[in-house]
Amino acid sequence: LVVAGRGDKRIKCTGWVEGSAKERFYSDLDLLVVPSEWEEPAPLVVTEAAIRGIPAVVSDRGGLPETPLCRVFRSGDSAALASALTGFVDGGAVRTASAGLLAREEEFSFSRHARETERVLQQVASRRWH
Fold it and tell me: Of the candidates 27, 24, 42, 35, which has an alpha carbon nearest to the alpha carbon of residue 57?
């Protein structure tokens, strides 16, 4: 079991990862678990995982539940986390979610984000302000 974040004798804590180490980290994942207990305002790690076709189990905090094809559990509830994990792993749901994410890759791209941001800014700029 490899977990980036908190330490525990049974868990390998990788700490901050970037560059090629981050790519290796993601390439080793089948499923991402983000059990945050605070209101995640911009959960980029789940977007980075989604781009790579890695589904996620996330807590119900902040923007995490907006993660495509994720399983959501109540923050701080270990039984709910276990249930979400079991529900994802049983019956090949991880593989199905992964394929679904890869099919939607363009939705998560920076270029699409830039195009959509530009579109919205152009709409706002074209309005007459009184």
Answer: 35
Two tokens, residue 25: 């980290």
How far apart (Å, rounded) are the C-alpha atoms in residues 122 and 15? 41
pTM across the whole model:
0.74
Nearest to 35 by CA among 92, 81, 86, 71: 81
Q: What is the pLDDT of residues 77-98, one digit of tens each?
A: 999 999 999 888 877 788 888 8
State the CB neighbour count (10 A cutoff) for residue 65. Answer: 15
87, 73 contact by CB (below 8 A): no
Length of the chain: 130
Helix (H, G, I), strand (E, B) or coil at 81: helix
Q: Are 75 and 34 within 8 A, CB to CB?
A: no
Token match 């076709």: residue?
53
Q: What is the DSSP letter of 7?
A: -
Strand ranges, E, within 1-130? 2-3, 12-13, 32-34, 56-59, 71-73
Q: Record the tokens describing residue 83, joined without a space.
A: 């249930």
Q: Find where tokens 């890869």 sit.
A: 102
SS3 category, 75: coil
